Amino acid sequence: MGYSLQFGAVWASFGNLLSGLALGLGLAVAAVACGTVIGLVAAFASVSSSRIARVLVGGYVMLIRNLPLLVLVLLVYFALPQLGIRFDKYESFIGALALYAGAYLTEVFRAGLVAVPKGVVEASRAIGLTRVQTNVWVVAPIMMRNALPSMGNTFIGMFKDSSIAAAIAVPELTFQARKINVDTFRVVETWIVASGLYIATCFAIAALLRRLERLFPKF
Amino acid sequence: MQPFLNQIWIARWPLWEGFLLTIEVASAAILFGTVLGCICGIQLVYGPAIVRFPFRVYVDVMRGTPVLVLILAAFYIPSVAGVSLSATQAGVLALSLFAGAHIGELMRGALQAIPPGQAEAARSIGLTFPQTLAYVLLPQALRSALPPWINTGVELIKGSSLLSIIGVGELLLRTQEVIGRTFMTIEFYVFAGALYLLANIFLDQLGKAVERRVQGR
Fold first, then answer.
1. Domains identified in chain A and CATH numbers
2. What residues of chain B lie within 8 A of the CB of A177, using their CB?
3. What's the CATH superfamily of B2-215?
4. Which among A66, A82, A187 has CB closest to B200?
5. Is B130 exposed, middle or buried (0-12, 13-18, 19+ CB in 10 A)?
6. Cα B127–B107–B111 angle (5° rounding)?
7. How do residues A39-90 score in pLDDT, each as one tens digit?
């Protein structure tokens, strides 16, 4: 076979990999934060009495869930400028990932909303809370708790999908790994270390989320 | 609109071939992934600890790594190991391994959800373990695993778009080539998106139809 593992070249650029990892996490956090806003609005719209709102949300979710993220990213980064809308590569990737996360989070929040017991809503209406107060102070907290595990999974998914930013030259982990790969040809070592970093981060996030779930006991 | 339609007509064969390759790659990955996933799921539930452990590691590694990293690794690593794979073969390899882990995990869930009484009843009427698996456990597990299995299929069609990065001439790369010639960026990306949408919705509906059939026993 004639190939012996030498990790030296990878360790020499390990700092770049770590900063890429941090950037990937940052992209995922920003996208999930924006996506949460989209998802909350869309989820409440999808259980509202307005037929138009329900159809719009249904169309958005179906469209985004069946479209490859890469197509969405390229569309935002390369195609929107044709209409005179220009974002830099970070903004356009966060925007695309937020739209993508928003569709998945809509489903997550909707499932959480449906699982809120009817009696709680009726009770809060009965003690004189308005509809808005009921939604903000009673329904939303219970829904968030219901949605927490799936939200965590979505976040891990989005963190993994931040690797696609490499396609538009955002210098995150995959981009940095690819750079080491073509610079040094330490192919096996590079990808072992890169995927090790991804796996370790995913497990760390998952462990953190389990802690968070224990912190807020289920309703 | 007219110039766009003209350009689509000129580019119809490359785009069609790209679309076909996307479908072929995704189908191959679903096929290999399902075989791998069934083996994996059965081992994860019924295998002895020494077999279970490597399968557990495989599933966790594949599920913790982004698809793009798997694809790049499958593209670069085999050549230094002395195996020469084409870009398409590397892509199918990466997507199959990815699908195998996901299907393995959902098969594990489906098998574990079967009440233990089923396997006990099968044993007490004298079925061997392979018979129990073939006639009692798998039919039930496959039925309940169908919806997430279809979801994995949709993920694979979407994931196949990442193969454009390693130079596989599937739908997205063909679209980018056409855009490079015509500069009609929005039109052709939207067109490619519509084709992906069509393929995925078709797969989704197919899944729902099969679901309806197998449910009415």
1. 8-215 (1.10.3720.10)
2. 69, 72
3. MetI-like (1.10.3720.10)
4. A66
5. exposed
6. 40
7. 999 999 998 889 999 999 999 999 999 999 999 999 999 999 888 888 999 9
Interface of A with B in 54-83 (CB under 8 A): 62-63, 65-72, 74-75, 78-83
DSSP letters of A84-123?
T----HHHHHHHHHHHHHHHHHHHHHHHHHHTS-HHHHHH
Least confident span in A10-14, A203-207, B29-33, B104-108 = A10-14
Rounded Cα–Cα distance for residues B88 and B66 (Å): 18
How close B47 gets to chain A, by Cα (Å)? 24
A85 touches chain B (CB under 8 A): no
Q: Where are the domains of chain B?
A: 2-215
A166 shares contact with chain B (CB less than 8 Å): yes
Q: How many CB atoms neighbour CB B109 within 10 A?
A: 16
Q: From chain A, pick out residues whose CB is under 8 angstroms from the CB of B164.
A: 70
